[in-house]
Fold each of these.
Amino acid sequence: MSEDILEQIAGRAHEYFSAQNRARERALPLCREMVQNSSKAIRSAHRGQKDDAAAFLQANASLNASLLEAVAESEEIRQAGFVHDAQKEYAEACLTVAMIQQQRVPEPGELNVAVPAYLNGLGEVVGELRRFILDSLRRGDTSRCESLLDTMDQIYGILMGMDYPDVVTHGLRRNSDAARGLIERTRGDLTNALRQEALEVRLSEFERRIG
């Protein structure tokens, strides 16, 4: 084998790795910012700050577009774990905000995220809905709790139906197992709260009758 051929191979390898590294360096800060905005959007939704939540999600939509442009020429970086995690957090934030605010749930294509990232984000929403239900119970408001628990069950059903290898789903099975535990604990918490609420109503009615 001639030295010239080896030099050509090495040169092409340098070009390849340089392109991968450029894509990675462009993508990393965008991913970090998306994760931060997603957390802020979810926190704003729980606090009832609708405008703030919408602003963080809009910022993430722009960041996601920039991210996809940054990795357009590198399928390896597009499939990297940090890109998946950023899109997963973005999907989780969009879905959480939509469900808490009783809006239409966006689809993967609308968010421009990969299906595994979307479904893993959907799995994470179960924890946020549990948080919302517990906050509602502490306020003595049970009006939406049963419907949200039903939504959690629906999410779990969807996740369990994705019977594919983890390498394809990015660990969706672990996510669905965690969701099942959260749902069962939430069901117990809600059942106890509803029983307490019913007991208080009966006691109040009894007090009125004997008063």
Amino acid sequence: MCLLYLSMTRILLTREYPSIAKLLLTKEGFEVTAWPEQRPMTPDELVANSKKADAILCTITDKITAEFLDQCSHLKVIAQFGVGYDNVDVDAATRRNIRVGNTPGVLTDATADTAFALLLSVARKTLYTHKQILAGNWRSFEPNKRLGIQLKGRTLGILGLGRIGTEMARLCKGAYGMTILYHNRKNNIEAERELGARLVSFDQLLRDSDIVSAHCALTPETRGIFNKDAFSKMKGTAIFINTARGPVHNEEDLYQALVEKQIWGAGLDVTNPEPMSKDSPLLSMENVAVLPHIGSATIEARTAMARLAAENIIGFFKNGALPHPVN
């Protein structure tokens, strides 16, 4: 495709992404426009701005629905800034011959680190006790207060043993010698060989795990899978971790499970709804740690994500192929 044509091709960035994305796109001659505000666009704003573009670089907060695509069927490419793309109606895009790409692999370490950090924070109540210092409640040594639990030799159960889940398993195995259970659609042979991971039913995962960590995609099957029934099957000493997607768990059911001591604690990087209300009772609980969806928030990961998203757009318009296609 000639440079003249590329210079006439318009790309909408729905946020101010790491500068590498705009740099790569402008270097190739694209006309690039970025939404300047920190808040996500409203659905109407997204439509209005996308109508002026040939491709968009978007993220999880941008709802690329069938209704949106009806109004923006002229788009050639949707480049998702992230590995997950449940905000995009991929089937609707495919029917309209719109290509969709994502950014797999580059946020594995960052997200697994976040899950591991949440586990430590819950086990030792670090976020809660830090808030106690700020509130002026650290007065003296109290032998029977603020007690956490040790993690050495525990059993980790992972729902979704893909790249991120496997890295979380490596961290837990290496640091604490944990036994690894997992539930997947199919066996992860490499993880079984490397980590001794064992494929089990979902019910057994819940029943036998000391830590249950969600690393699955959000699908009709996994939406709300951690509900009242699931929490009731877990150990009273168990910790629930979710760095996948908020709708994987039912937040009211999670709160009740914690209040009723059906489980010991919870660590969330994703919430349901998201963002979480500042008045959520989970935020004041001693045995809960919540982060504002920062799983991929390292300089290295976010820069790599921006690069891959830009490369998907460049690859399509120059060669007709996305390096990291979804459809």
